[in-house]
Amino acid sequence: MDRGGQIREQDPKEQTLHQRIQGDIENKILSGDWPVGFRIPFEVDLAKQYGVSRMTVNKVLTQLARAGLIDRVKRSGSFVSQPHTQSAVLEIGDIRREVESLKLPYDFRVIERSKHKATSADRLRLDVPASASVIDITCLHRAGGKPFCLEERLISLETVPEAEDAIFTEITPGQWLLRQVPWSSAEHRIHASAADAATAASLGVEVGTACLVIERRTWRNGGPVTQVRLTYPGDRHALTATFAPAS
After folding, report:
1. CA distance 194 to 200
2. Considering 57, 85, 113, which residue would you say is the last residue of a domain?
3. How far apart are CA 179 and CA 151, in angstroms?
4. Is the pLDDT of residue 232 over 60?
5. N or C terminus of the chain with fewer C-beta within 10 Å?
6. Are 104 and 143 in contact (CB under 8 A)?
7. Which residues contact 147 (CB under 8 A, 6 or more apart)?
8. 141 vs 89, more confident
9. Tally of domains in the chain
10. pLDDT value at position 247?
11. 112: β partners
């Protein structure tokens, strides 16, 4: 917001610098150059260093805190966080392996695929600029011939341009991304949801059936890679966490 109280659109140059700043900080943390407890430069100093607004820097630090890489302490600054044991509870898994672990035959099919400019809803899901193009793909995973999981995925073509020519017939989008695109940070969100008409039709359940929804976003060097929503009928999937006490 400017001094006149008007909402200011973020400059595309700042959006690109946002990714660079986030990538630079991630690399310093993950490489160990900035160890646990290291105080990250203040917002005003980072803004001056990169020639951007404090709002842009604040957004970067907010995303890093959300990913568990830093802790933000009021009036003290931002610090590299101690890795949490819980962060390993949900790994980025492979649905094929999930099904095969149940001793059931696995198959999948692509229901819909398109390439388009990011809509406002896409930008909320994947955090890409308005000018960005995305691959929007929906797949159905089956176990023993029955619907197992509905996958709704966005892939950023700015970060992963090679996805435009990828053919997802023998390999799922998730498998392809795990093999082709190294990611540097991820965010999971788990919640329950009642199946709407479209979801119910895909999963072969009644409208309103309780479903388990896992939403995940991944980034590479500050740039968004993908956002995926995995929907499982509530009686066909469970999450098991194995972890140890934090030191």
Report:
1. 9
2. 85
3. 18
4. yes
5. C
6. yes
7. 140, 141, 202, 203, 204, 205, 233
8. 141
9. 2
10. 46
11. 138
